[in-house]
Amino acid sequence: MAKKVLMTSNGDEVSRNIAIQLAKHGCRLVLMGDEASLRSTVDHIRVSVDGAFPVEIIGADMEADSEEAFHVAVQKAWTCLGSLDAFVNCCTYQGKMQDILQVSEDEFKRITKINLTAPWFILKAVAGMMKEHGTGGSIVFIATIASGERGLYPGADAYATAAAGIHQLVRASAMSLGKHKIRVNMISRGLHLGDEYPVSVGIDRAEKLVKDAAPLGQWLNPEKDLYSTVIYLISDGSCFMTGTTVMVDGAQSLMRPRLKSYM
């Protein structure tokens, strides 16, 4: 599957493993975000993935207020690859788990910029170029289950608010961009042990109690549980799929009250 993919990332475990798997499946990648955070991912792909295309990095401040800054970054990615088949937004910032009354103005602004403003600007830039060149393409957003009604958990008020906007962005932009053969979908992922909520309750406790609290008895595995859905959504096999949120959460969201009480 030789797709040309722009992917935002902050170098976290989830986005790192998605990038590695896309490279293994023959995609040509450009990673956007903090260059220092992304260098290790690029080096890992270069050393460990046989036959992988060189991965480029486009430095970008994901807290930028300027739409033009993101447009320039996307233009660089387009020029680097010659075109774009897909954009995958993996760069998120959950913030620390804390009561809503304790969230500072600066923290709220940071969470909103990274999780909603930047995705909005990048979607506009990518879709605009796909329209201009008549290529169409696939856009995929990834957020945790806190972005949806079923998956709320305590202490994630600011992140849940910002990420919930992505759900509506997916639906609204799918309606607007379909005429340009641009598809927009979302993955609502389950939590893994490195996420803020399990960390806040204690890794040992979270690892032990999830066996009784979640239907599959485990947290999401970032190495193997997400990448196949991403590959499907950017592939031609999902060409009739748009405006959809795919739940990849091991039914954590269905059991959210139980999960909360156990934790």
Q: In which order are the strands of the major sheet placed? A: 3-2-1-4-5-6-7
Q: For the residues shown, what is the average pLDDT? A: 93
Could you tell me the strand content as a percent range? 5-15%
Q: Compute the gyration radius: what is it?
A: 18 Å
Large-scale geometry: globular
Q: Count the helices. How many?
A: 9
Biggest sheet, in brief? 7 strands, parallel
The helix fraction, in percent, is 40-55%
SSE string? EHEHEHEHEHEHHHEH
Content-based structural category:
alpha/beta
List the helices and strands and how they pair.
Layout: E1 4-8, H1 13-24, E2 28-33, H2 35-48, E3 56-59, H3 67-81, E4 86-89, H4 105-133, E5 137-144, H5 157-177, E6 182-189, H6 196-201, H7 203-213, H8 227-234, E7 245-248, H9 256-262
Parallel strand pairs: 1-2, 1-4, 2-3, 4-5, 5-6, 6-7
Helix pairs in contact: 1-2, 1-8, 3-4, 4-5, 7-9
